[in-house]
Request: fold
Amino acid sequence: MKTEVVRVDPLRPEPDVIARAVRILTAGGLVVLPTETVYGLGAAADDAASVARIFEAKGRPAYNPLIVHVANVRAARDLASRWPESAERITHHAWPGPLTVVVPRNRAKVPDVVTAGGDTVALRMPDHPVALALLSALGRPIAAPSANRFQALSPTTAAHVLKNLDGHVELILDAGPCDRGIESTVVDCTGEVPVVLRHGAYSLATLRRLAGGLQSAHEPNENDAAALRSPGLLRLHYAPNARLVIARPETLAHALREAGERRALVTHRASTANFAPAEVCTLPSDPEGYGAALYATLHRLDDAGVHTIVVEAVPDDEAWSAIRDRLARASG
Ligand code: TXA
Ligand code: MG
Reply:
């Protein structure tokens, strides 16, 4: 299959480009679309055969359910068999945005293949003009995991997508780099108190306030039922090809010595950047800026053939939790 990459204006998507993507999705094809978090690998969510092609293209095991993207809250409610009060409160404020709610599934509207046969469905209204234009022009929900091979690093540019999926999708809509650069926060709204299943780009402090209380899923292992419910919780996910090592300031020099020739250092502190005897990538010192740059930096170091990436540990506070989570997983 030939994969076409088409540029699209990120703010005012050209109607003819959107129409082309709609034709492909309607015919059962796959379209990679930009979102504010990462690029998604999309298929019409109500078309089981198209959704099955997503799993093939990604090499993703069938037990890992997909996020369904919707144009508005009304479309989301239509895919749920029950719309919990917490989902209403949260989505009312957080959508469009990098926040995914897990709710009871409407079996008549969401095929088994989307949810791995489960009783719940993950829903999100993305905050990106291109994604929203495509969703409303299609008039159907779009199932879309991150547009990378299973367990690889998520893509924040069309070039990252091509590295993984060239020849596996019909069309890539290239709207430039994603603003947030970290996947959405996933929150399970099916129980009494909402439970965070995946830390992500949406602020936990805000989510806690909206939800009026919040539980954190424990860190499961591969045999854990909770992990199988939400495999994004599995360790060694979101990993670059290079070995990734996290080091505190006091062990940084040692880690760099141990790292060998083809090493690089990723830090958020100018003071570290000045002394380090290695190629240095200095990322912004705020969590939003750091998150937006992180995957692109790891992709670039991979492409440059770096063998070991030493990352200086990021701050311990909650605002950095999604970044700490991704770094920990990438370091295995
Ligand atoms: O930002 C994002 O969320 C991106 C963009 C494209 O929207 N999508 C994304 O999808 O990261 P994916 O498939 O790479 O990750 C979806 C996560 C996985 O951890 C999956 O296990 C979890 O959501 N998930 C999906 N459906 C679920 C469900 N019904 N119950 C629990 N977890 C679910
Ligand atoms: Mg993913």
Q: What stands out?
A: The chain has 13 helices and 15 strands.
